[in-house]
Design brief:
It is built from ten helices and two strands. By secondary structure, it is mainly α. The protein folds into two domains: 61 residues, no CATH class; 203 residues, no CATH class. The chain has a two-stranded antiparallel sheet with strand order 1-2. It is globular. The termini are far apart.
């Protein structure tokens, strides 16, 4: 099996017409989502066309500094998305810094591990391998970290009486916040656990599907998908643990007090 079937612009235009049904449903049912659906479709199309041109240039150059620059930029943008998904944000620089630093750690770390220890392309920094891998890793880790931090900050505000009661009884800040920390970590890790449970039975992941459509042997596609899922699971778990611990450390102090003054509510858009 080799080669792949090329899609024409007309094919994409006809496929995009399916969004018309979703837009009409939103209007008829007064869901208030019509504008968001159209904007999301336009934004996605523009972003993918732009990244397609950019990747074509990067693949042609194949320079380590350029690959590293793209990976760092992707991680910083992922940090911004983590911040935007918080109903209650850490005040000041922490609102962006915690998510961005977590993404900057887990994304490049897992990608370098994958390309140097397992895939081993030549050269090892080949952007055809590194950039798609870091994209999949960051996308999933971003979701987990976002959920973990959002659960943490929301629960801290909601369960303030319980946390302060445990502190008054002599518990340390880590002992007082332990139930919330556990809940936040479980919330952040649950999406990747659900994805692994469903993969191969309910859903064929995007990378595997793309490789099969491009003519890769299904067994080889499965091996690549397993590698990516293991990398994603590791990055998500590490990212969630680091972000939740960092958020807990910020929302308490060395005197074992709860510091909700370091939280701000996100402005409604």
């Amino acid at each position: 099996m080799s080669g792949y079937i090329q899609l024409s612009v007309l094919d994409l235009v006809l496929a995009s017409g399916l969004l018309l049904a979703a837009t009409l449903a939103s209007l008829l049912l007064q869901l208030g989502l019509a504008r968001q659906i159209v904007w999301a479709a336009v934004r996605m199309t523009a972003q993918l066309l732009l990244i397609g041109l950019l990747l074509k240039l990067i693949f042609a150059i194949t320079a380590p500094w350029l690959t590293a620059l793209v990976i760092v930029a992707m991680a910083l943008l992922a940090g911004y998305e983590v911040r935007q998904r918080q109903a209650n944000r850490l005040a000041g620089w922490w609102s962006y810094g915690l998510g961005a630093s977590t993404m900057l750690l887990v994304g490049p770390l897992m990608t370098v591990l994958a390309v140097t220890a397992f895939v081993q392309p030549e050269p090892w920094y080949d952007p055809r391998y590194a950039i798609p891998m870091v994209g999949m890793i960051l996308g999933n880790a971003m979701t987990g970290v976002s959920l973990g931090l959002d659960t943490l900050t929301s629960a801290m505000k909601r369960d303030v009486a319980a946390v302060e009661a445990r502190l008054l009884l002599g518990g340390t800040r880590w002992e007082a916040c332990r139930p919330i920390v556990r809940k936040a970590m479980r919330s952040g890790m649950m999406p990747i656990i659900n994805a692994m449970m469903a993969t191969g039975v309910i859903a064929l992941p995007g990378m595997m599907t793309g490789q099969i459509l491009a003519g890769v042997d299904p067994e080889e596609a499965v091996r690549y998908q397993l590698l990516i899922m293991f990398m994603i699971a590791g990055a998500t778990s590490l990212g969630v643990v680091l972000a939740v611990i960092g958020g807990t450390w910020r929302l308490t102090d060395e005197r074992h007090r709860l510091r909700l003054d370091r939280l701000t509510e996100a402005k409604a858009s």
